[in-house]
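Troubleshooting log. The previous run stalled partway through. Resubmitting the same two chains, unchanged.
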Amino acid sequence: MIKYPNGKSPTKNIITKKRITNAANRGMDLEADINLSNEYYKNTKRALITKRPTPINVVKVDYEKGARITDAYFEKQSTTDYNGVYKGKYLDFEAKTTNNKTSFPLNNISLHQIEHLEMVKNMGGYCFFIVQFSALNKVFLIDARVIIDFHQKQKRKSIPLAIFSEHGQELQVSFSPRINYLDAVDKLYQL
Amino acid sequence: MIKYPNGKSPTKNIITKKRITNAANRGMDLEADINLSNEYYKNTKRALITKRPTPINVVKVDYEKGARITDAYFEKQSTTDYNGVYKGKYLDFEAKTTNNKTSFPLNNISLHQIEHLEMVKNMGGYCFFIVQFSALNKVFLIDARVIIDFHQKQKRKSIPLAIFSEHGQELQVSFSPRINYLDAVDKLYQL
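Second attempt completed without errors. Output:
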């Protein structure tokens, strides 16, 4: 395994060279790393997972400027960040990061997303969360069922770290793919 | 009223009942009807299919106005319009309309979309096209393979209507769901 200073690969620097490294993002950038992994999976024909664009509500378009949008705003994602196909099956997941050291706050997840994931699960799709505890430098993959249960039954406001160690799988960061989360998916769903 | 490049507003499916039927849209509005069908499939727990938002490249955001986007432009979709989960499997399709009476012009489909669909197919997902011949008031569901083959091997610029009648399935419009395309999917893939 090749380790780069800062935990960043050369390709990553090309894509994110404009990003300023400061105390706030000293660690890995979860979303960028998942995107790179998805590119790797696509190139190696293992899976095709795409990121849903953040929905934008367009208010005003200037046609004299060639359909340039002059007023719009970001909307909340009501589904999840990623979906795609793996071994013919439908796969759907959400990636989240917390600075918290002992638990994952549930206010990170909207009720719409919980409903969406529950529906996917009922329809036989695979759905899970990839959760990064940035202060601990740990990333877990956990079945959405665990999160949904916490959300609905426990009425807790956060999920203790121990739940992730017990019911989830810790993901290691490597060179290529950056985060080999599909190996964890294979194990979780016995594919 | 805001005009979008494809003539459709994001809220259109909500307000279709107010739609004025005139000479210009005497026929069905394919996208709106598919969206309504997907809502029906979701409510009846048959499938969960979502429309990918049109990708927008955000150039400028005014944070003083509360993260209001002040400059952005529409990008070309490099994937397809719809994807989701049906019977645990991954489903991916593109909806297209033509005014042509005898054939479907291939310049309606980008090379990126062909590549995307071919990849989905290789990974075991179900992918197809829903093509509307608006002047004929006919809608067909056809496996993406037929379209990909035409695109790659025949080097033709359009696909004759006869190919759709022979290799595709004609879809009927009804009340609810508006277009019951999943019955055609069942038949096509023997689900």
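Takeaways: Residues 10-17+25-189 of chain A form a domain with the Trna Endonuclease; Chain: A, domain 1 fold (CATH 3.40.1350.10). DSSP finds six helices and ten strands in chain A.
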